């Protein structure tokens, strides 16, 4: 088992608690954006969707639960820098936001998830999103995303994400 280093934190926030994870990816912003929004590229690391995103709603099918698709409401989409979606879930609505900013041939990614009203805690969600963002990084590199092991993230990163950081890290 390999222990991963966390790249995010739990923020108490001014309005609601949220999970925040940041990454600098050594790829141009358009490549990162395409891996987040193109159904074929998204499927290389997370899952895919059916439907027309311009309608504001798609059916999302993740790799881990392909037989249990869920609705994804597109709240905000500003290519290639901001995407906000709400995923329907029996455990509460998952409100997610990704912002991208270009730095030459690199892209800064900031992922946020609202935590209010969810059955899951940041201690469980944080390691999961670290896992998926590492899969995204590998997909961008053309690497083997299936080489990542869930056990390297959970429970090893749970303690880190159970600690609140009101001002950031």
Automatic annotation (TrEMBL):
Protein family per UniProt: Belongs to the AHA1 family.
Species whose genome carries this gene: Corynebacterium nasicanis
Positions of the Activator of Hsp90 ATPase homologue 1/2-like C-terminal domain: 29-141
Superkingdom per UniProt: Bacteria
Cited Pfam families: AHSA1
Descriptive protein name: SRPBCC domain-containing protein
Coiled-coil ranges per UniProt: none
